[in-house]
């Protein structure tokens, strides 16, 4: 039987990092105690990002690294902050990632352990599965959750063949312990007393399944080289490790200072970090916690070195922009109602019949390529745009999402409506041919220039508050500067030079 | 090849309302104001008008997308009337309909009237527009200044100049128009503005500041056209003014979707102007045109239009602007009435307002801003966006 395990992974952390000192200084009048926690940053979605757009970004990184010869036949999206309660979110991700129409899709939520749960389900079924987890949790201004929680996504491709890490065993426990909860109609979590949550909950619930899992695998706690326990805090994770005989040094850092606790995504985000620092043969224990626990055990294979070339948490975290504007963060999340003027009054009703007809263009970023003259064009059209060709019905589908691009012309428009003004847009030139006028995102004013490099990203286009619909499209963003060199790389380089 | 319309149609009379924030007026009032002046000027009874073309681009007036609000306002005697709209070329399109109606022999006397009541929409800047069901899903929610501003970034990149140099030339364009507009009693904005104030104005859409943008206003303009023979028979107190050419060029998607165009010019202006010069028999526009009224929706649009019309070498328009070539006392005075900059841009009326200025200048009736015996003038509209637009060019002259 072929080995089953993790084939590839991807991570996405929004570029914007809100400095905690900014939050604390804005709220110290109400809660001076926050000052003690005013260090590091939390990753925050821009005005046009949500759990779904982050999931697409992470999924694309994960898919880019998997072998070409097969494709996921299932996609599972795990989140507690899905934009839609009844319109399958995984289905949108699948179309944005241009997966086959025959892909089985499922949403999984209800608990912060849903990401690990989705991964476990993927490991226990045949075929190749793309697991994506993302969360963008709203937090009440001025509270401790606002400081703790960040936004991110992670994606894992599970399959057979030649995995980076093979799946060894799993344990689970379900306990309806409500250290926090969020009812379906609530914006914010309700958080219970921290000491009770730790002593009566976490430390009571988690060690059992971990010890059982280690026992099942016929190894000892000391054999766990990477203990991935997200969302507990470093101190609690170390305490649990100690209870289970796992070396303290095996605890994967929780990234609190870099991005905060990213909810459902966080275990998988930390797992990318563990995979990139693991050596062949090392055991990785992944914990998902929330109304019980799921624990999964992996062993890194001889191909684990490939992980260093993939896009994990470290690369994403290294490429960020500090944001010191707390008021803007509040506005992004609807906590303050800015006066956006009359242009914000427009009706964003979506013609669903037109959207369905054009969803390859809108969701898939798929244009056309003329088979008569070879011209790539976006969007695809009935008559070729090349003045020297004009062939009719000659175009085949041409994916544009992964094409590198550059700015042909641009503006920063302070008159147009944007919830992060100015609205930036311009003519975009794609490598290999094709031009289009597109919205830019993630640029700061005065960053744009003719010739500046661009990459395409799936983002929110408009929110129709009246009908509860949100529409997405592809925008051009600055390419992430992702170093593929990780800690493991450096160690290996050190070893080869030593 | 078709012989065109050169000298087949004469302008019998024209009218133009005062442009501005006409809080006291409805579209109906503006129509009556412009039409009354034109009818008096034409020296005919209204019942002699056999057909009408009506330019109205934005909000419907009265019962929807038809010319009914024109015929009902003026109580026209059940004549043929058609509403036209073609973005910022709408007013000129109304004139083209009337001119072609007469040139074809279908009518002896026809009316072209354009109106727009923008200030009731409540917007500063043009109102939000619908983009249909497809572009709405993915196309940026652009504005007019944001799209035209891109001429500037592309121009700077194409010609290797500094943005500061271009901004100075753009400021000169706006300064010049305000100088001209100050002399025009029908203009919306009638104050002179110094260049420093223009350069320091708040940013609307980089690099366009407030004074790089035309105003938003209400207005109406109107022309009554006929055959030269009838015009001569009816007579008048000035020289016979005829239409030398009317040309229109629309984008087909190549600028926005095919990578040949560099973004620094309007392809359609280059195409329409060449056709117009050919139809009018113009071989050296810079020497032959005595004045021009161009679509200065934004200062940068006027600047690149000087090159697109062949009045400045490509890449040198900004130098010509700074040298004063297009000032009131320059070689080719541009927007001597104050342009869109000072009149604002009531879309349906703008093209006809431009022709009105040429007509007044040719007949020596332009008052304080009268040029020295002009014989030939050109109007230009550019509707839409640099990468997808409608361009209309008209040449009007004395016989």
UniProtKB/TrEMBL annotation, chain A:
The keyword Transferase applies. Residues 366-393 form the ChsH2 rubredoxin-like zinc ribbon domain. It comes from the Bacteria. Keywords: Acyltransferase, Transferase. Pfam families: ACP_syn_III_C, zf-ChsH2. Transmembrane segments: none annotated. One of its GO terms (biological process) is secondary metabolite biosynthetic process. One of its GO terms (molecular function) is acyltransferase activity. Residues 215-293 form the Beta-ketoacyl-[acyl-carrier-protein] synthase III C-terminal domain. PANTHER family: 3-OXOACYL-[ACYL-CARRIER-PROTEIN] SYNTHASE 3, BETA-KETOACYL-[ACYL-CARRIER-PROTEIN] SYNTHASE III. This is 3-oxoacyl-ACP synthase. It comes from Parasphingopyxis marina.
UniProtKB/TrEMBL annotation, chain B:
Gene3D superfamilies: 3.40.47.10. InterPro entries: Thiolase (IPR002155), Thiolase-like (IPR016039), Thiolase_C_2 (IPR055140), Thiolase_N (IPR020616). Residues 268-393 form the Thiolase C-terminal domain. SUPFAM superfamilies: Thiolase-like. The keyword Transferase applies. It comes from the Bacteria. Residues 20-226 form the Thiolase N-terminal domain. Keywords: Transferase. GO terms for molecular function: acetyl-CoA C-acyltransferase activity. NCBIfam families: PRK06157.1. This is Acetyl-CoA acetyltransferase.
């Amino acid at each position: 039987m072929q080995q089953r395990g993790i084939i590839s992974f991807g991570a996405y952390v929004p570029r914007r990092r809100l400095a905690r000192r900014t939050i604390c200084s804005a709220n110290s009048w109400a809660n001076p105690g926050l000052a003690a926690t005013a260090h590091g940053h939390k990753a925050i979605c821009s005005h046009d990002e949500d759990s779904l757009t982050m999931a697409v970004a992470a999924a694309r990184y994960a898919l880019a690294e998997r072998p070409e010869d097969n494709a996921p036949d299932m996609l599972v999206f795990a989140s507690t902050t899905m934009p839609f309660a009844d319109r399958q979110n995984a289905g949108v991700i699948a179309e944005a990632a241009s997966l086959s129409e025959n892909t089985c899709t499922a949403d999984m939520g209800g608990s912060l352990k849903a990401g690990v749960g989705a991964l476990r389900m993927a490991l226990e079924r045949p075929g190749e599965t793309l697991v994506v987890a993302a969360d963008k949790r709203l937090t009440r201004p001025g509270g401790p959750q606002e400081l703790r929680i960040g936004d991110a996504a992670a994606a894992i491709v599970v399959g057979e063949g030649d995995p980076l890490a093979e799946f060894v065993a799993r344990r689970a426990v379900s306990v309806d312990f409500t250290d926090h909860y969020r009812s379906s109609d609530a914006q914010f979590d309700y958080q219970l007393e921290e000491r009770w949550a730790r002593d009566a909950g976490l430390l009571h619930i988690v060690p059992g399944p971990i010890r059982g899992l280690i026992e099942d695998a016929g190894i000892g706690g000391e054999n766990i080289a990477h203990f991935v326990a997200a969302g507990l805090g470093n101190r609690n994770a170390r305490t649990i490790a100690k209870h289970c005989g796992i070396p303290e040094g095996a605890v994967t850092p929780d990234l609190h200072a870099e991005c905060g606790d990213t909810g459902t995504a966080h275990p998988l985000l930390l797992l990318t970090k563990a995979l990139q620092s693991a050596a062949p043969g090392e055991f990785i224990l992944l914990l998902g916690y929330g109304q019980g626990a799921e624990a999964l055990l992996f062993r890194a294979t001889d191909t684990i070195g490939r992980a260093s070339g993939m896009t994990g948490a470290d690369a994403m975290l290294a490429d960020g922009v500090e944001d010191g504007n707390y008021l803007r963060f509040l506005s992004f999340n609807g906590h303050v109602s800015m006066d956006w003027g009359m242009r914000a009054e427009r009706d964003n009703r979506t013609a669903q019949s037109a959207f369905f007809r054009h969803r390859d263009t809108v969701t898939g970023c798929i244009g056309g390529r003329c088979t008569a003259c070879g011209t790539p064009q976006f969007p695809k059209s009935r008559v070729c745009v090349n003045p020297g060709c004009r062939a009719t019905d000659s175009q085949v589908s041409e994916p544009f999402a992964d094409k590198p691009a550059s700015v042909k012309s641009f503006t920063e428009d302070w008159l147009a409506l944007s919830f992060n003004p100015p609205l930036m847009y311009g003519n975009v030139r794609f490598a290999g041919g094709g031009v289009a006028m597109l919205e830019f995102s993630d640029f700061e004013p005065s960053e744009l220039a003719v010739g500046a490099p661009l990459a395409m990203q799936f983002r929110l286009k408009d929110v129709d508050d009246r009908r509860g619909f949100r529409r997405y499209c592809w925008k051009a963003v600055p390419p992430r500067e992702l170093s593929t060199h990780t800690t493991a790389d450096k160690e290996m380089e050190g070893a080869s030079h030593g | 090849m078709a012989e065109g319309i050169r000298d087949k149609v004469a302008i019998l009379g024209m009218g133009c309302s005062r442009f501005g924030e006409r809080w006291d007026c409805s579209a109906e009032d503006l129509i009556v104001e412009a039409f009354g002046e034109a009818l008096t000027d034409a020296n005919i009874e209204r019942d002699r008008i056999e057909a009408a073309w009506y330019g109205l681009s934005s909000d419907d007036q009265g019962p929807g997308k038809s010319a009914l609000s024109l015929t009902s306002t003026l109580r026209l005697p059940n004549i043929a009337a058609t509403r036209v709209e073609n973005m910022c070329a709408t007013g000129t399109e109304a004139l083209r309909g009337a001119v072609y109606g007469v040139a074809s022999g279908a009518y002896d006397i026809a009316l072209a009237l354009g109106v727009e009541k923008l200030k009731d929409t409540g917007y500063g800047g043009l109102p939000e527009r619908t983009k249909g069901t497809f572009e709405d899903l993915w196309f940026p929610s652009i504005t007019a200044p944001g799209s035209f501003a891109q001429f500037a970034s592309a121009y700077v990149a194409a010609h290797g100049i500094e943005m500061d140099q271009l901004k100075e030339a753009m400021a000169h364009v706006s300064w010049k128009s305000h100088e001209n507009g100050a002399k025009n009693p029908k203009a919306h904005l009638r104050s002179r503005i110094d260049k420093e104030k223009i350069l320091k104005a708040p940013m609307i859409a980089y690099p366009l500041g407030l004074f790089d943008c035309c105003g938003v206003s209400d207005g109406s303009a109107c022309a009554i056209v006929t055959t030269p023979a009838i015009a001569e028979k009816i007579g008048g107190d000035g020289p016979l003014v005829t239409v030398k050419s009317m040309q229109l060029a629309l984008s087909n998607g190549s600028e926005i979707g095919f990578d040949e165009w560099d973004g620094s010019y309007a392809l359609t202006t280059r195409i329409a102007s060449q056709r117009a010069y050919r139809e009018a028999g113009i071989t050296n526009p810079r020497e032959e045109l005595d004045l021009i009224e161009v679509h200065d929706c934004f200062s940068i649009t006027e600047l690149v239009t000087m090159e697109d019309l062949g009045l400045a070498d490509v890449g040198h328009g900004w130098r010509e602007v700074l040298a004063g070539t297009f000032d009131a006392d320059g070689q080719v005075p541009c927007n001597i009435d104050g342009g869109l900059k000072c009149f604002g841009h009531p879309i349906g009326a703008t093209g006809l307002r431009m022709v009105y200025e040429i007509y007044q200048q040719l007949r020596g009736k332009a008052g304080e801003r009268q040029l020295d015996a002009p014989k030939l003038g050109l109007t230009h509209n550019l509707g839409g966006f640099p990468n997808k637009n409608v361009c209309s060019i008209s040449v009007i002259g004395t016989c």
